[in-house]
Every structure is written in structure tokens, then in C-alpha cells.
Amino acid sequence: MQQAIIGFTQDDESDWVAKLACGHHQHVRHNPPWTNRPWVVTPQGRQRHLHAILECKKCDEGAPMDFILTN
Prior knowledge:
Helix content is 15%, strand content 28%. It has two helices and four strands; from the N terminus they run E-E-E-H-E-H. The protein has a four-stranded antiparallel β-sheet with strand order 3-2-1-4, with no helix packed on it. By secondary structure, the chain is an alpha+beta fold.
């Protein structure tokens, strides 16, 4: 299911994680050659990708939310 990025955080290993509108988290690593996301390593790049759409496998699986949504 497609979900919008509403923010970013870092995990315990300092990898970037997107917070999705559905309440799930998804890693958005820049790890060439497997994953090419150079935009994630700068604040400007992350800001430009707010509201971008990612495919949320956790939604497809019916997984519970990773965080509580607030207004």
C-alpha cells in the first residue's frame, strides 16, 4: 500500500527511517549499489522528500503501527 512520508528519525545505528502517514516506519538507507538514496544523507534532501510516496509492506501485511499518530 502506498503511504506518504511525514517525517524522519534515526535508528540506534544512525540509519535514517521514514515515518509514514499510516503509522509505520521504513528504513530509507543510502547503501550503494543496492539502494541509491543520496538525498537521505542531507537535511535538505529529507525535507524535499516529505510527502513522497513509499510502498508500505507493513500495511500490506496488516502489521500494527510503529508509532501513535497525533494531530
